[in-house]
Structures are given as structure tokens and as C-alpha cells.
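Quarterly update, task 2.4: zinc ion-bound model.
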Amino acid sequence: MPITEYFSPDYAAARQRFQAAAAGAGAALTSHLLPGHAGPSGEALAIDVARLGNARAQAALLVISGTHGVEGFAGSGCQVGLLADRLYEALPESSCLILLHALNPFGFAWQRRVNEDGVDLNRNFVDFSMRLPPSGAYEALHDWLIPAQWEGEARREADAALMAFGQTHGMRALQAAVSGGQYTRPTGLFYGGARESWSALMLARILTEVLPGTVRRLGVIDLHTGLGPAGYGEPILDGAGPAVRERAVRWYGPDVKDLGAGESVSARVVGTMARGIERVRPEVELTYIGLEFGTRPVMEVLTALRADHWLHAQARADAALRSRIQQQMRGAFLSESPAWQAAVYGRTADLVFRALRGLCA
Ligand SMILES: [Zn+2]
């Protein structure tokens, strides 16, 4: 099957292909239905989980797609490919492979980066019983990011103000202020939420029910798109201390960028999933990377995100504009180019092999 056929045109097709490929591989398949929501064609929304290999594994690799909804088009394609190409035959005896499909099924189905509550899951893993991280840097930009009108004078003024901020403070500072994570604007970008999300609760269940209790070493590859050079996958390490860094570089090579050290195409962010996994399975030695594939230039991706958030902050919007913004979102996080899809799948498969070797060395 050509690589482009691993990549699906919509969430419903992606889910069906993943389930079929998992069944074909003889995987143990479990599903968690998102209550109270459906997709654009009325389809059920769910996190699907396939497990292959040793049920009493010492080491496990968890590959996640769709943490950021719409980015699941790419991640799902890679997972379907891993199953269709029988990559699980390379599993060492004492290991298992878990493929988590569509951690944020609502965002995937509706072509949004955020979930059913407008929440960025990778900012949602904070301790909500504690004081939340500061949102001041984002607050200063929110009204420019989401202007009163998307087309017209208000938008032109907002764009000029954002560019002026970038020129004064630097584009990295602009990126950090916008994308670092905020907890005060539910309709805004990179909103971390006010409580633990449904997806975070389900992830905790999967980490206790599907990830074997015998596992002592866990590798996570969380598949993302939208940042960096087109078609290149940057392995972004999220973990503290020299030991995990040394381990990640040993597994994946010198391309590894340390999120906390500010080396990555991503800004430093708060409330990431690695913290959630550490809380649920503290006894496990965790090596977590986000694998971030570039799509379009960063300002184009930001414009698509602003448009999407503007659209959803409106009570109603013109149908043609709505459709245009949805297409813009899809194009910002997935390329239809066969070369791009081959590069993304090949890089993912390569890093999966490397992780299995590292985990079982
Ligand atoms: Zn992402």
C-alpha cells in the first residue's frame, strides 16, 4: 500500500483505518468514547488504543497521535503505517508497543488544535489544586491575537501591533508569549484549561490499565506538526536532568533538542504531558519526546490558529469564511504532498526502531 494511503481524509476514516490495521496485526484494542460529543457527520469520537507484544513487558514504547487534534492527520497516518508495515515484528521479546490513536478526538474530527473545551492538552497537565502558572505575557497580546473582526481594519491594526511586538522584543519572545501556555482566556490560543481534561483522565487510565504494571522503562513518542522546517521531524526532549538527556541523545542521536533548555523550535511551555505521565507512573524511567514535523512557515501557522480561535469565539460566522478557515487549519498542520508524508512516516518509523533498540539495550 502506498504511504499516502496511510493518511486519511478525515477523522472517521482515520479511526476506521487504525482499527482495521490494529485488528490485522492481532493487537489488543481498547476504546474510550468521548461522552456528549460527535463528529461533523455524527460519528462517535474516541481514543483508540492498540497494544502489541509482551503483556508482562519490562520496557514499553508508547506512540501518541492527535494530542493536538488536527495534527492527528499526520500522526494517525504514521500509526497506520507502523501497523500495516508490521513494524511490531521488530519488537524485542521483553517489550510492548502501545499506539494511542487520537488523544484529542474532538479536535481531530473538527480540525482544531484544541479539545472540546477549547483546551490545549499539552498545557493541561498542571496541578489544578495549586496556583496556576502566570498568564501575563499572553494577556498583553490576546486582543491582538483575536481581533474584533477577522477581515478589515481591526485585523490590520492587530497584525501591525503583533509585528511591532516581534520587532521590539524578538520573534522568539513573541512565540514564547503566545504559545507558552495561559490559564485566563478560555477562547484564546494555547489555553491550558481550568480542570483536568477528559483526555488527561483517559491517558491516566491507559497508563494504569493498558501499560503493563511490570514496565520499568517507558519511551514516549508524541507526534506533532506545525513547527520547524517543512518535512523535518525534530525530536523535542521533555524531561529534567542530565541522565534523561544523555539517554535521549544515545537513542535518537544529536538531533535531540531539549525543551527546558530552550533549544527547540518550540518555546518553553508549561503543563506538558510528560508531567502527567510522571505523576501517574512515578516508578517508571521515562524518556519522552515530542516529534515535531514542520509544515508551513510559522507566521502562516499562527495566522491559521488565530483565525480558528476567532471563528469559535463568534456566535455565528459567514459559512464561506468558516469553511475557508477550516481548510486553512488543515493546511497548516498537514501537507498533502506525497514527499512530505513519506518523510514524516519514514522519520517516525526510524525513531520507533531507535527507541526499541534503546529501551531494550
Ligand atoms: Zn502539537
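Highlight for this quarter: Residues 103 and 199 are 6 Å apart (CA to CA).
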